TrEMBL record:
Residues 1-79 are annotated as: Disordered. One of its GO terms (cellular component) is spliceosomal complex. Keywords: Coiled coil, Nucleus, Phosphoprotein, Repeat. The lineage of its organism: Eukaryota, Fungi, Dikarya, Basidiomycota, Pucciniomycotina. This is Catenin-beta-like protein. It comes from the Eukaryota.
Length: 639
């Protein structure tokens, strides 16, 4: 019997995530467990999944056909044909075309075991169709007696497992899958009463749609010209076919059927998330049905990542749910913006903040938990570009939590800076800017900006606050505060006072950063010119400078211009510091002019710093251009 459950060897490609599961065993299938001499259904406990032993397989003519090598006695494809109104359901499961194919294969040439040819692939797929229909027939005929259909369930599972190897030759096998309408059959199986069948289908589809498998060229297809393109084309065609028959909704719907208290259930959830990740990777538009108002997927992910049901070293699904949430909310697909809005409307923002609050006073225990924390932060940051999420973040005391994280100076500190950056950006972030200053956030902000020690007892500097990415977020925060805080308001005056205190030490740090970043940008420009040679143009140079840190330089000079205009003492100090480096306000003007000219220009990379994929609304882009214009005019007047 163990041979029935023996999986064929998998192709070399493997999915991104690995699930450590126990060795497959007959007892692992719920469909073959007994609670006694009688079936569970006879005791009123069965809810659709048959449970029975396999010790004494019935030889009754109404029982399963067994595991004979032929589909029917004598190889007659018409053997199971019956005169009934239900046709395929109670018949042999083969339509006229499939019967013709089967008869042709019976006379075909023999092939080596495991060799994939059109004939062997069609034979395997037709065997699956036979197994599906036989199982349906017996389940319908003997709904209260699992012993009558248990063997057909084994045959069905065996037929599914045998198809795993089709992923090794997508260009050959996937078109045949579509020709024989296999996606429709697999979609039906995702609603099967036995969750073992659901899991087997999910694992099969996850393997077929593994994006990493498309990069493998160590198979027979690799020798053909254009093999890679054929593999990709065939895989995407299969994805389209699966989406058309509703596999996305069926897979999501099956998540609630799986019991994570059991090993099989945990593995089923893991592989279901893996299948959905593969679909999103291959076709990002799959995010649209996943985030539709009628889909429970968003709620499931938030609820699952918030539920610490098992010890961290065993509960991979909690971490996977966070990664999936971060992924699906970051995709540029229709419905994603609406999905982000649902985070606010359905109180999911509060849930995410509660999860993150666990890292206020402690660091994650390992690499997996660190990645989990970062994924939750990323999901929140991506969604904070939606005004409704900003409002929910403010009302849920998200600003307070981030400020507390800044003070505690744990690993979550730099992630809190990034989150505040996203939260305070734009016109919808004005109220959050005011709240940040009200909560005395300026002190911790400038502490990080100055690169001060992460711990008073430690001599080591807070290195994570001085990385290029984190410095950019700090500068963006200052930019948002200077843009949004009302003129002559107490919060703005408190911000400006920070640049004056302690003999302009924050101004010194700002100009020091400017020199460092300007050096990197100029180096990047020279390297671009050297690489491109005579073909280089202004766009290439501009993009090269962006890679070298131009966005940070633009932010530095934006802040510099604001504080020059707000305070004469600061302005004179900046002019003096620039002169020491053979620089002047003219250099600041040049950077700001380039910044202004590239905002909203669809033909070039936008010069809007950070944001990670967020698009600046037209009105905000126009406002930023106007502000830059006024700053440039002022600097010209005092240069």
């Amino acid at each position: 019997m163990d041979d029935i459950f023996k999986l064929p060897a998998l192709p070399k490609n493997a999915s991104k995530h690995k699930l450590e599961a126990p060795v497959m065993d007959v007892s692992s299938y719920k469909s073959v467990k007994l609670d006694g001499e009688t079936s569970a259904s006879s005791n009123g406990q069965d809810k659709g999944k048959g449970r029975a032993t396999i010790e004494d397989a019935s030889d009754d003519e109404d029982g399963p056909a067994g595991n004979s090598e032929d589909f029917a006695p004598g190889g007659d494809a018409d053997y199971f044909e019956e005169e009934d109104e239900d046709g395929r359901f109670f018949g042999g499961g083969l339509n006229a075309v499939q019967k013709q194919v089967l008869n042709m294969m019976e006379g075909g040439e023999a092939t080596e075991p495991g060799e994939l040819t059109p004939v062997t692939v069609r034979r395997q797929l037709l065997a699956l169709e036979k197994a599906i229909d036989e199982n349906r027939r017996l389940r319908t005929k003997f709904p209260t007696d699992p012993t009558k259909f248990v063997d057909s369930e084994f045959t069905l599972l065996e037929a599914l497992h045998a198809l795993l190897l089709l992923s090794s030759a997508p260009a050959l096998t996937y078109p045949i899958l579509l020709d024989l309408s296999t996606p429709e059959s697999l979609g039906d199986l995702l609603s099967h009463e036995n969750t073992d069948v659901f899991i087997a289908v999910v694992e099969l589809l996850e393997e077929w749609l593994d994006p990493e498998g498309l990069d493998d060229e160590d198979d027979d297809e690799g020798a053909e010209e254009g093999a890679q393109e054929k593999k990709v084309e065939a895989t995407k065609a299969l994805v389209d076919g699966l989406v058309t028959v509703g596999v996305v909704d069926l897979a999501v719907g099956g998540l609630d059927r799986l019991n994570e208290e059991e090993e099989e259930g945990r593995g089923g959830v893991f592989h279901t998330l893996g299948l959905l990740e593969n679909l999103l990777t291959l076709t990002p538009t799959v995010a649209t049905p996943l985030l539709a108002p009628t889909s429970p997927f968003l709620k499931y992910l938030v609820t699952r990542l918030a539920a610490d049901k098992l010890p961290a070293d065993r509960d991979q699904n909690r971490y996977y749910a966070a990664e999936m949430l971060s992924l699906v909310l970051s995709l540029p697909a229709d419905g994603v913006e609406e999905g982000r809005k649902r985070l606010a409307d359905e109180s999911h923002v509060d849930t995410l903040l509660k999860v993150l609050s666990a890292y206020r006073r402690r660091d994650p225990s390992g690499a997996d938990e660190t990645e989990f924390m970062e994924n939750v932060f990323d999901a929140l940051c991506t969604s904070l570009h939606t005004p409704a999420v900003k409002t929910a973040f403010l009302e849920g005391e998200g600003i307070e939590l981030m400020c507390l994280m800044l003070k505690e100076k744990k690993l979550s500190r730099t992630r809190a800076i990034k989150t505040l950056d996203h939260a305070l950006q734009g016109q919808s972030g004005i109220a959050l800017c005011e709240k940040f200053v009200e909560l005395l956030g300026l002190k911790t902000l400038f502490s990080a900006f100055m690169g001060k020690s992460a711990n008073k007892k430690s001599k080591a500097s807070f290195s994570t606050a001085t990385t290029h990415e984190d410095t950019e977020h700090l500068l963006s925060l200052l930019s948002s505060l200077l843009t949004s805080l009302s003129s002559d308001s107490p919060p703005r005056l408190r911000l400006l006072a920070k640049f004056v205190e302690n003999d302009y030490e924050k101004v010194d740090r700002l100009i020091e950063l400017r020199e460092e970043v300007e050096t990197r940008v100029e180096k990047a420009a020279r390297e671009t010119v050297a690489e491109e040679g005579e073909d280089v143009d202004e766009v290439d140079i501009y993009l090269g400078k962006l890679e070298g840190g131009l966005a940070s330089l633009q932010l530095i000079d934006y802040v510099t211009a604001w504080i020059c205009m707000e305070d004469d003492g600061v302005r004179d100090h900046i002019i003096m510091l620039l002169a020491r480096k053979d620089r002047s306000l003219s250099d600041v003007i040049r950077v700001l002019a380039e910044y202004r000219d590239n905002i909203g220009d669809a033909s070039e990379e936008p010069a809007v710093p950070v944001g990670e994929g967020a698009e600046m609304p037209v009105d905000e882009g126009t406002e930023k251009k106007e502000i830059l214009g006024h700053l440039i005019e002022y600097l010209k007047s005092v240069d």
